[in-house]
Amino acid sequence: MKRMEPSKGWYQWAWSPVIGCKHGCTFCYSRPMFPDFECPRFDLKVLEEPKRYRKASVIFVCPYADLFGEWVPELWITSVIAVAAQNPIHQFVFLTKNPRRYHEFVFPNNVYLGVTIESPDKMFRAKEMEGLTNKKLASIEPVMGDFTGVDLSMFDWVVAGYMIGQKKTKKDRENMRSISHHNKYQIYR
After folding, report:
1. Do 23 and 64 meet the contact criterion of CB atoms below 8 Å apart?
2. Rounded to whole angstroms, how far apart are CA atoms 152 and 137?
3. What pLDDT, on the 0 to 100 scale, is given for residue 25?
4. Do 4 and 45 form a contact (C-beta atoms < 8 A)?
């Protein structure tokens, strides 16, 4: 599998210098794709790939990992952030379930800091992003609850999608409609 893959969705490229995660989410779309997924690994050969792309693009960083998981070494993270800083033509989108770790690093202006909030009870993760000055993204994927009345105004962009590989139910569609944001991208599967 290539580590820099094209997309037809909310980003143009998926860039994966780190693969693997220890969260153990039951709904993880990545785990079945990689052997030893619970043992994150860093691939230096993939690190410089964004430099090959001359056309301004939105690049989703580490879609097969949580780069800001507690188990990820600081050197891996700073190496990835450095590549984003060296490629200001691109918009890099980071995503984590551990946003408090964002406060440990300095990010260039061409970075969106994203957080996964799959259900309203995970909104505490959004509070952990207070004080960060970069643009912010909420990923509500998979949608696992009713977001009626949930304030997402701190985010510049919201991406929402259904559970991969499962038939959408009436409740799933209602939950998707309950997400209110001026800049919402809905993933259709």
Report:
1. no
2. 10
3. 72
4. no
Average pLDDT over residues 160-167: 80
Provide CB contacts within 8 A for 11, sequence distance 6+: 57, 58, 59, 60, 93
What are the E-state strand segments in 43-96?
58-61, 91-96
Distance CA 64, CA 95 (A): 10
As a whole number of angstroms, the distance between CA 50 and CA 126 comes to 28
d(CA 124, CA 126): 5
Percent of the chain residues past pLDDT 90, beyond the cut: 73
Strand ranges (E), the chain: 4-6, 13-15, 18-19, 41-42, 58-61, 91-96, 111-116, 135-140, 157-161, 184-187
The amino acid present at 115, given as its one-letter code, is: V
The maximal CA–CA distance of the chain, rounded, in angstroms, is: 45
